[in-house]
Amino acid sequence: MNSWLALPLVVRLAGIFAAGLIVGGAINWAIYSLAWFARPISPWGPVPPRSSHRSLADRVPVWGWWLLRRETPIHGTLFWVRPLLIELSFAAGIAALYWWEVEQLGLAVIPTPAWTLHWQWFAHSILIALLTAATFIDFDEKTIPDAITLPGTLLALALAALVPQSHLPIAVPNAVGGLATGNLLSTSPNPFPAWLHSWQGPALGTLIALVWCAALVPATSTMRRGLVKAIQFYLTSIVRRANWVQLLAVAMAVSTGVWSVWILGGPRWEALFTALVGLAFGGAMVWGVRLVGTLAMREEAMGFGDVTLMAMIGAFLGWQPALMTFFYSPAAAVLVAVGQWLLTGRREIAFGPYLCVAAVYTIVRWAAIWNAGSQVFALGWMILAILAACLLLMMGLLMMMRMIRQAVSGEP
C-alpha cells in the first residue's frame, strides 16, 4: 500500500484508467453474452457466422471496437459506438471515483485510514461494473439476468466477511468520548445488539439466505384448486426446473459460510450480517412494490430481475443506502428516460437502470446522506412499519387510478 501511495496521483489514476478499460471489456462481454438473447458482438464471444475473422487486435479495449466497424453489415449501423463509450466511460468513472473517495475523502465523515478507503473504493467499483452490465441488458431486453445478480450478491457477501472495512464509512463514538472511523452496520447508528452474536443471529442469516435462494427458483402456482393443490403445483414446478439443484447448493454454501463466520465473530460477522439484512431489505422492498402494483393494476408492475438487482445493491451497501437508492430512483428515472428518448426515441423505460443510477448517486453522496439521515435510520424496525403503510397507500392510489382509467376508457 505504501508503494502504491508513493506514486504520483496522475500515475495511479492512469493505472486505474487502464484497468478500467479491461474491466469495461468484460462488461461488454457480459452485456452481449449473459443476456437472454445472446448476440455474437463482443470480440471475446463467439465469432459471428458471417464474419471472416477476429484477430487479437479486435480484443484490445476501445481500439478493437474501432476495428470491428467492418462488421457493421452484420450488427447494424454504429453498433460499435456504444461498447466503445462504455469502456471509456467506465474507466474514467472509476478513476474519478478513486479521486473522490481516496484523495478527496468524499465519503468519509471523519479522517479514515488509506487502506480502508481503497477497499471501499474497490467494492464500489465492482458494484458499479455489475450495475453497468445489468443496466444495458435491461435497456436491450427489459430483463436483468440472474447470471449477474446472483454472482454479484455472493461476491458482496464474501467481501463483507473477508474485508468488513469495505462497507460504507460512518463515525462511531470511541472510548474517550470522541469519534472514530467505523463502518455501516445493520443497526447503525444504534449499537450492534448482543442477541445477534448469539445463535439467533446466524439462524436469522441462514433464513435470509434460504428464502433468497428459494425466491430465485422459477416456479408457478395457482390458488384455483385450493391451498394444498397450490403448494403441490409450486413444488412440482420447482422440481421440473434444472437449476433448483444449483440453487440448493448455493443455499447450503451460504448457510455454511454464515455459521462459519459467526464462529469467528467480531467485525466479520457483523459485516456479513449487515450484508444479509441489506439483501433481504432491498429485495423485499422492491418485491413489495411489485406485488402491490400487480394487485392494484392487474398487470405486472415490474420484473423479478428488479427485485434481485435491489437485493444485490443492498448486499453491497446495506439496507440504509438501499432505502435511499429506492427513494432517489424516481429522480434518476427522469434522467434515464430523457437520455433514452434522445438517443433511441423510445419512451418506455425499465426500472433497473434508474435503480442503478440512484445507487451510484447514493455512494457518491454518502457522507451528506449519513449526516442528514442518521437519526432517521435510528428508527430501525419502525421504518418497516412506515414502508408497509406507504405500500398500502400506494395500493389504494393505484386502484383508484385503474378505476378512473376504466371509467374513462370503458374498459372492463
In short:
The chain is mostly helical and 412 residues long. It contains 16 helices and 2 strands.
Would you write up a description of this structure?
It is a single chain. The chain is 69% helix and 2% strand. The protein contains 16 helices and two strands. The protein has a two-stranded antiparallel sheet. Strand 1 (169-173) and strand 2 (179-183) form a beta hairpin. The relative contact order is 0.09.
Question: Describe the biggest sheet?
Answer: 2 strands, antiparallel
Number of folding domains?
A: 2
- Assign an overall shape: globular
Head-to-tail CA distance between termini: 67 Å
Helix content: 55-70%
SSE order in H/E notation?
Answer: HHHHHHHEEHHHHHHHHH
Structural class: mainly alpha
Order of strands, widest sheet = 1-2
Query: What is the count of DSSP helices, taking H or I runs of 4+ residues?
Result: 16
Beta content comes to under 5%
Radius of gyration: 23 Å
Kindly state the number of beta strands: 2
State mean pLDDT (0 to 100 scale): 86
Low-pLDDT residue spans: none
Secondary structure elements and their pairing?
Layout: H1 2-6, H2 9-33, H3 63-67, H4 72-75, H5 81-103, H6 114-141, H7 146-162, E1 169-173, E2 179-183, H8 200-216, H9 227-239, H10 244-264, H11 266-297, H12 304-317, H13 319-344, H14 351-364, H15 366-377, H16 382-409
Helix pairs in contact: 2-5, 2-6, 5-6, 6-7, 6-14, 7-11, 7-12, 8-10, 8-11, 10-11, 11-12, 11-13, 11-16, 12-13, 12-14, 13-14
What key attributes describe this structure?
412 residues, 2 domains, mainly alpha, globular
